[in-house]
Amino acid sequence: MKIKEILSVLEEMAPLAYAEDFDNVGLLVGDQNAEATGVLVCHDALENVIDEAIDKNCNLVVCFHPILFSGLKKITGKNYVERAIIKAIKNDIAIYAVHTALDNHQDGVNKIFCDALGLKKTKVLIPKPNFIRKLITYTIPENAEKVRNALFDAGAGNIGNYEDCSFNSKGIGTYMGNEHSNPEIGERFEFVESEEIKIEVTFEKYLEPKILKALFKNHVYEEVAYEIYDLQNLHQNIGLGMIGEFESPMDEKDFLALVKDKMQADGIRHSAFLGKSIKKVAVLGGSGSFAIKNAIQSGADAFLTADLKYHQFYEAENSLLLADIGHFESERYTKNYIVDFLRKKILNFAIILSEENTNPVKYL
Fold first, then answer.
1. CA distances from 324 to 116, 218, 249, 284, 321 (A)
2. What confidence score (pLDDT) does residue 89 get?
3. Fold of the CATH domain 3-99+333-353
4. Minimal CB count within 10 Å: which of 54, 122, 279, 317?
5. Is 65 annotated among the ligand-binding residues?
6. Is 252 labeled as ligand-binding?
7. pLDDT digits (tens, 9 = 90+) for 78-117
8. Residue 39 in contact with residue 72, Cβ under 8 Å?
9. Is 270 annotated for ligand binding?
């Protein structure tokens, strides 16, 4: 099996198009055409993790955080990033990062977070904007079903929990071909009026090349008429953070005790107790201070995230319980999820969970 075959499975789990624009995801180091010997899944691809990959004969390291985040002008081994990259290159080890591609997935980091706490009725906290487009095309009735099904197969027509969604209306199309034309209906220089079906479908914007390929391949017309629009609709199943509910409310101290236990947190920093029950909880794995207002607007009783600064605890505004459980802790089970996904998709191949603890924060 080549490394690129494993990468295609990883993109199925976390499409790179889901990642935030600032992020650096995908294959960071290595040759995707190399034969894979094994996969080591970790949280951070540090030098000790590369050593582990060497020891376990894994030439692909799949990490959550990208070890290469900003540009490097020199690679001299002067810091932990450069040392890890040098060792990976010297030993022909590829490094692939998922990060916000998995953060934004409805079954990704924040769903894992919610599941660990036992939260139900989950939904995305900050739906992704500017991600949905609409295709409108026109064809003869005899061709409509073929075109529609091809568009569905290419990924169009998915709305929330529904698939194969489209809107179809009848109308009259007109055209007249010139001397270079080869019309499916009528002759050159003949004015044609033909009954047509207007087909409208929405799709995630990164699928556009695949959608258009399916359209052109299955349409009967020599010249395919189509329109594509950017929609203002938010994508309800892609985005940062998640909100869910407990079956029964609990008091604040019991809630934080549960969080500490389930997320194996050595310490939790939190805002003042408000003396109210906790039932509806917003979560955002990693650095999530930017989402405090979103959590308040969602009606959450508590918001769990990481990397909060002193003054940001004031932003709770006595509206909810704000808690910083630690960056690593909030993403703790992500690597387990990646391993489980790969093992289900790739049978009889070495998919190994890293034993290295790469959390840089320690507690007394």
1. 16, 53, 20, 10, 10
2. 97
3. 3.40.1390
4. 317
5. yes
6. no
7. 999 999 999 999 999 999 999 999 999 999 999 999 999 9
8. no
9. no
- Under 8 Å between Cβ of 124 and 242: yes
Instruction: Judge whether residue 161 has pLDDT over 90.
Output: no
Helix (H, G, I), strand (E, B) or coil at 28: strand
| Domains 3-99+333-353 and 132-233 fall in the same CATH topology | no
Domain 109-128+238-330: CATH class, spelled out: alpha beta
What is the C-alpha separation between 92 and 150, in angstroms, rounded? 41
Q: Are 29 and 95 in contact (CB under 8 A)?
A: yes
Half-sphere exposure for 125 (CA within 13 Å, toward CB): 34
Do 339 and 41 contact (CB within 8 A), yes or no? yes
For the cut 90, the answer to whether the pLDDT of residue 184 exceeds it is: no
pLDDT above 90: residue 185: no
Of the pLDDT bands very low, low, confident and very high (cuts 50, 70, 90), residue 60 is very high
Q: 36: which DSSP letter?
A: P
| Exposure string for 288-301, b = 16+ CB within 10 A, e = fewer | bbebbebbbebebb
- Domain range summary for the chain, segments of one domain joined by +: 3-99+333-353, 109-128+238-330, 132-233
Q: Would you say 331 is a known binding-site residue? A: yes
